[in-house]
Amino acid sequence: MANRHLARSVVLQVLFERDSSEGKMTNDEALSRLTDYGKEFGARDSDMPFMKQLLQSAIAKQKEIDEVIVRAAPEWPIDRIASIDRNILRLGLTELLFADRTQVPAKVAINEAIELAKSFGSASSGRFVNGVLGAVYVELGEPGKNEGGARKDVGNKPVKMPTEHLAGAVVYARSEGETYLAFVHDIFGHWTLSKGKIEEGEDIQAGAIREIKEEMGLDIKIVQELGVNEYVANDSKVEGGKKRKRVSYFLAESPFSELRLGSSGGLDDAQWFPLSTVGDLNFYDDTLKIIVPAINVLAKRSADPQKKIETEEGSEGQKKVEEKEESQEARTERHGGRRRR
Fold first, then answer.
1. Which of 27, 100, 108, 260 is the most buried (most CB within 10 A)?
2. Cα separation of 314 and 322, whole Å?
3. How confident is the model over 135-156, as pLDDT tens digits?
4. Where is the Nudix hydrolase domain (predicted)?
């Protein structure tokens, strides 16, 4: 572990210098610098493949990672973050988001970044890095939180948290005898459900209709409520730094029209998918728990048993989604993963 910590320190040094060069350092120069620093600081030869992969991934994914940083720390524009902290975050997020978790568990990635911040940053760097990576960790569903050892227990004292209400929908449309579902794609690489915050004094259903219009450009009709997801999220603007988010989801019908992605942030695409292909998409566990009931409702509402959504046997897409949910539930029991946007 100590050797891997040294390896990460060497990668950080190269990332810092590359950042300071304002893009003038080429990838080949960065790799050459990595080799030189590895020898200078006594990194093991056996760690060089790990170091090269980490450096190349951090460089290749920098744009996506910077978007995640902006989302996790909206009060800190990327160019206002100290260069060393910025590159520690880039390194930590590279491992947290893109590394093989069997090799680098999420909590190891976070702890290693915090230690780098304590070693190379300012007095407040450790807390800042912990806050940003912790926010992303919660967004990912705290993978591996039940495996022990990563984050310190802050005590069992109950904390009263403010509640933020949100609403979203599983939106469907029919075209030429086929059923389609609309999803948005987030910067973490998953397809998910469109949702947003309910405004003060706004009805939950009215809020869902407004949010879908703003985020996907669709005029929807609410069919029925599907369920509620509730979770805790980091928020530096509230007392205690945490708030409870309560998301009400609805099944909603829409015309099969062009999707127009809004500017709410954190999303990079919106698409319609035939129901038969939905089971092949990359979803979060809690998203599946809403999608499966939605498909079941659609199946029951289908008047024609020969349609893609069949009342008795279930469609190919329905079976795929249910199988994926069962698979992810089993994985959740092993690793404690739950992810929410």
1. 108
2. 10
3. 888 877 777 665 544 444 434 4
4. 162-297
